[in-house]
């Protein structure tokens, strides 16, 4: 299911408090909310931007209960607490985050006074988002925006150095951004391997001393597969920023080579703030590849989601103008608000993020507000995991406030107390701290109670070394660590290796996902916010890293601090944290974590220390080469199993066939691919696409469709050669099914409501057909989805019904879409508008049930009671017995031949006139439903 972002739009009515409209009075005095004394280092002020530039701002309202809430999150995440493991629902969290009535009234009335369009305001409880031109923002915040240019990154952003709000509003405003925040997230790649390097033959041999693969990590951290029933609640999220796109084809090849036990793992892509999913982008995507490939290869049947989030700082176009999407560089805010708005069932259980920026670049108020949002995710049961950074104690080791004082630089958001930060190690026997592993002590966040004993012990052993360069009272990072160098990955069809704590975060996230799977199978909750539990283990389940250390403060343009760095020591240290995980021990500990209200008796047994795995000198071969099956034999077997609807066998055969194609360099056509293999490879992928459709696996079908495009491009460019190759290769290889696969893809896009992608594909087909002197609708496979889309746009639902249930369906696989989601006019349902009519996508096969449920909901509000006979007609029931069964399921009271609906307190207070109006509305809409159903059926 694709999560949907449904912002709450403020109405055009005046803000009401206790029934009285309030409007802010213009203030003579304005107070500064935030102010920078100097332009941040590395930035240059340039000309002013166009004042008409629309910009999206986030306003955080100040709450008085922040510290109490955060203390509760820590307490509830500590094993033994009465509420341990009982995560808050979305509604419970919203209730606890609601600002005071006074704060809401003051802020909203100020926005109204400043003529901020009500329809542009999104209400998120203690946060508001609104979009206005820069000229209006300058007026209402008494500031002036400018272009600022960063020569090293060659980026231009629109910012200001200070902003203010009215005196009577200031007590209720924590921050407004983007205003004074200049930083932008960076992927945490190691300095030594910032640019991924191609692998040598020896690297590919699987030698763990040269390259790190999933097999090496499994061996090192004791990760063994156990039979656990997949649970849809065990969703593993991976964050994507900076236009990095996780590619399906790269993942498939990586898993086939290095994690064949996970060869069928896949992921879906969710767009946030206009984030894109460009599978064929030529820009490097090594960070996205690294994150998704290791998260999936090491987790166990997790439902993976790649959250592609736009926003990195506005890029000025050649015209000098910015779009709304361009003018935001608040990717954390956009992502976090999107996630917090999701229903509980769609929220990820684990979120891995491999991005960060040094604290001096981040305004403290912004960091605190964002950190509180991470705490809210933790309260809802999400384990938030961040890489700790790749600059050791710091990069330039200077403050960025204009004073240029020498100071170590911890990384945010890793320094937030409500995320689990992951440092880096290298080597196998023994593991040691890697020199670039980020760590230290926050200058923004004080040390949380859960790590106080461990960090205090370290500081006592440190003495007065580096005194004055760090905050001894600050939050210590990292919390844990894993391997972080020489990771094998696949990007744009090329094998590479890279490193950084970027690699460590998804490794640890995958281990936590496995622990969640085991807990869910035993009826327990997911682990949620991890840190109180991790520190309570006293390093049980972790290998203490005592060798190596970090190095930093050696940037030529920064402050030179000789020998700056943190050493790995016994116990917690600011380079490897508590150490590296050992899965088997952590699994036992995770299953023992409980609250004092659990109705069971636990007698924890002593757990052994994690054994030191004995690494092989030459490492395991993660993908032993088996005898290559004959492709034609596999193809024949695939046809047979698919015809017999044996989808389980088909999936197994597809895995074997794709692995064979990969070994023969034929999974993706290249100049070196043997010509006689191309039609065989194309046909195998086409059968895979059809199998995915029959399994209702939309992401799987999409991947096959994308993989087939290079083959179809080759056929289109050299049609005669393609045909001759096909005929000469083997009679078992049938002609291309491009039209059928493309038609199915169009139908899938139509069923998902993705009209933009639908028309993008269709325009390419129209152009191709016109060049060949024909119409795109000459092809029945293409004509079918085109006519369906046309009828849907016209509102001809009776035609849609006939099309999907007639002999005009061009094939068996198209018939599977007879229950595609259709937009139907439903006056009770909120949703996007089409042609002035309120619309919502509903699946045909659940249409009656959905409408019946909605009518039941409205009936409860409109009537005190109804005769059973009337309810039968109203609910489209065949018999009164069905009505009685339905009423019992709803909890209605049956008495004297009538149904009595539950009375809510507010409903009891309504006037008779209100009830009559509601009754009239439900009757009108019920008649409309009946007419619509009659038309379709």
Automatic annotation (TrEMBL):
Residues annotated as signal peptide: none
EC number: 3.4.14.10
Active-site residues, as the UniProt record annotates them: 287 (charge relay system), 291 (charge relay system), 502 (charge relay system)
Cell compartment(s), UniProt: Secreted, Extracellular space
A single cellular component GO annotation: extracellular region
CDD domains: Peptidases_S53 (cd04056), Pro-peptidase_S53 (cd11377)
Swiss-Prot/TrEMBL cofactor(s): Ca(2+)
Cofactor, free-text remark: Binds 1 Ca(2+) ion per subunit.
Residues covered by region (Disordered): 598-628, 715-736
UniProt key word Transmembrane helix: no
UniProt-listed Pfam families: CSN8_PSD8_EIF3K, Pro-kuma_activ
Feature: compositional bias, Pro residues: 605-614
Domain of life: Eukaryota
Its biological purpose: Secreted tripeptidyl-peptidase which degrades proteins at acidic pHs and is involved in virulence.
Protein name as annotated: tripeptidyl-peptidase II
Natural source organism: Aspergillus indologenus CBS 114.80
């Amino acid at each position: 299911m694709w999560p949907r972002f449904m912002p709450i739009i403020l109405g055009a009515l005046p803000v009401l408090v206790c029934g009285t409209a309030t409007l802010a009075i213009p203030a003579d005095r304005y107070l500064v909310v935030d102010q920078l004394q100097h332009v941040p280092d590395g930035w240059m002020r340039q000309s002013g931007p166009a004042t008409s530039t629309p910009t999206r701002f986030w306003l955080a309202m100040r709450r008085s209960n922040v510290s109490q809430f955060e203390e509760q999150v820590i307490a509830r995440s500590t094993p033994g607490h009465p509420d341990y493991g009982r995560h808050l629902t979305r509604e419970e969290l919203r209730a606890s985050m609601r600002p005071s009535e006074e704060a809401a009234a003051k802020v909203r009335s100020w926005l109204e006074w400043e003529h901020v369009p009500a329809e542009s305001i999104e209400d998120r409880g203690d946060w508001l988002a609104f979009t206005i031109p820069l000229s209006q923002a300058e007026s209402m915040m008494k500031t002036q925006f400018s272009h600022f240019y960063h020569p090293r990154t060659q980026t231009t952003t629109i910012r200001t150095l200070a902003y203010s709000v009215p005196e009577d509003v200031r007590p209720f405003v924590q921050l407004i951004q983007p205003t004074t925040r200049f930083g932008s997230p960076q992927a945490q790649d190691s300095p030594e391997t910032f640019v991924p390097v191609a692998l040598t033959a020896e690297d590919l041999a699987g030698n763990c001393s040269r390259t790190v693969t999933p097999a090496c990590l499994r061996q090192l951290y004791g990760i063994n597969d156990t039979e656990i029933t997949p649970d849809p609640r065990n969703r593993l999220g991976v964050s994507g920023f900076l236009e990095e796109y996780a590619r399906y084809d790269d993942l498939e090849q990586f898993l086939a080579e290095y994690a064949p036990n996970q060869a069928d793992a896949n992921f879906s892509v969710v767009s946030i703030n206009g984030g894109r999913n460009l599978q064929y982008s030529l820009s490097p995507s090594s960070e996205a590849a690294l994150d998704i490939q290791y998260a999936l290869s090491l987790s166990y049947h997790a439902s993976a989601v790649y959250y592609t989030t736009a926003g990195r700082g506005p890029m000025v176009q050649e015209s000098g103008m910015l779009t709304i999407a361009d003018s935001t560089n608040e990717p954390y805010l956009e992502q976090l608000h999107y996630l917090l708005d999701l229903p509980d069932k769609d929220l990820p259980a684990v979120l891995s993020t491999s991005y960060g920026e040094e604290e001096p670049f981040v305004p403290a108020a912004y960091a605190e507000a964002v950190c509180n949002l991470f705490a809210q995710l933790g309260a809802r049961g999400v384990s938030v995991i961040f890489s700790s950074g790749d600059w050791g104690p710091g990069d330039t080791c200077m403050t960025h406030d204009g004073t240029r004082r020498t100071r170590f630089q911890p990384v945010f958001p890793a320094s937030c107390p409500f995320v689990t930060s992951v440092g880096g190690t290298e080597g196998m026997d023994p593991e040691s701290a890697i020199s670039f592993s980020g760590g230290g002590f926050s200058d923004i966040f004080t040390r949380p109670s859960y790590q106080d004993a461990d960090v205090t012990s370290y500081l006592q052993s440190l003495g007065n070394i580096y005194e004055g360069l760090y905050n001894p009272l600050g939050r210590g990072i990292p919390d844990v660590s894993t391997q972080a160098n020489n990771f094998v990955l696949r990007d744009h069809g090329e094998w590479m290796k890279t490193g950084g704590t970027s690699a460590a975060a998804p490794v640890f996230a995958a281990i936590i996902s496995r622990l969640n799977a085991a807990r869910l199978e035993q009826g327990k909750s997911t682990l949620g916010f991890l840190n109180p539990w991790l520190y309570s283990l006293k390093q049980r389940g972790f290998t203490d890293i005592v060798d190596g250390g970090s190095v930093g403060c050696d940037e030529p343009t920064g402050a030179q601090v000789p020998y700056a760095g943190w050493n790995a020591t016994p116990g917690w240290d600011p380079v490897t944290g508590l150490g590296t995980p050992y899965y088997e021990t952590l699994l036992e500990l995770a299953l023992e974590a409980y609250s004092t209200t659990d109705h069971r008796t636990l007698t924890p047994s002593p757990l052994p220390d994690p054994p030191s795995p004995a690494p092989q000198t030459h490492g395991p071969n993660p993908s032993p080469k088996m005898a290559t099956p004959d492709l034609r034999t596999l193809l024949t077997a695939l046809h047979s199993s698919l015809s017999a609807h044996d989808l389980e066998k088909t999936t197994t055969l597809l895995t074997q066939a794709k692995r064979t194609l990969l070994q023969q360099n034929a999974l993706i056509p290249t100049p070196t691919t043997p010509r006689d293999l191309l039609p065989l490879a194309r046909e195998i992928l086409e059968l895979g696409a059809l199998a995915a459709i029959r399994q209702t696996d939309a992401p799987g079908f999409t991947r096959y469709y994308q993989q087939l495009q290079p083959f179809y491009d080759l056929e289109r460019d050299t049609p005669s050669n393609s045909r001759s190759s096909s005929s000469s290769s083997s009679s078992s290889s049938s002609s291309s099914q491009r039209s059928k696969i493309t038609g199915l893809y169009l139908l899938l896009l139509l069923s998902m409501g993705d009209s933009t992608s639908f028309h993008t594909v269709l325009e390419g087909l129209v152009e191709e057909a016109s060049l060949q002197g024909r119409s795109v609708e000459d092809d029945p496979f293409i004509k079918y989805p085109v006519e369906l889309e046309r009828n849907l746009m016209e509102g001809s639902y009776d035609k849609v019904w006939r099309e999907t249930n007639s002999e005009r369906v061009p094939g068996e696989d198209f018939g599977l879409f007879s229950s595609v989601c259709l937009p139907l006019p439903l006056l009770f349902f909120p949703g996007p508008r089409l042609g002035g009519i309120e619309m919502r996508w509903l699946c045909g096969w659940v249409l009656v049930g959905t409408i019946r449920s909605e009518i039941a909901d409205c009936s409860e509000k409109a009537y005190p009671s109804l005769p059973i006979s009337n309810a039968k007609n109203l609910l489209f029931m065949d018999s009164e017995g069905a009505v009685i069964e339905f009423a019992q399921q709803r909890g209605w009271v049956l008495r004297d031949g009538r149904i009595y609906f539950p009375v809510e307190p507010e409903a009891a207070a309504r006037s008779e006139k209100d009830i009559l109006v509601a009754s009239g509305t439900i009757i009108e809409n019920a008649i409309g439903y009946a007419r619509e159903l009659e038309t379709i059926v």
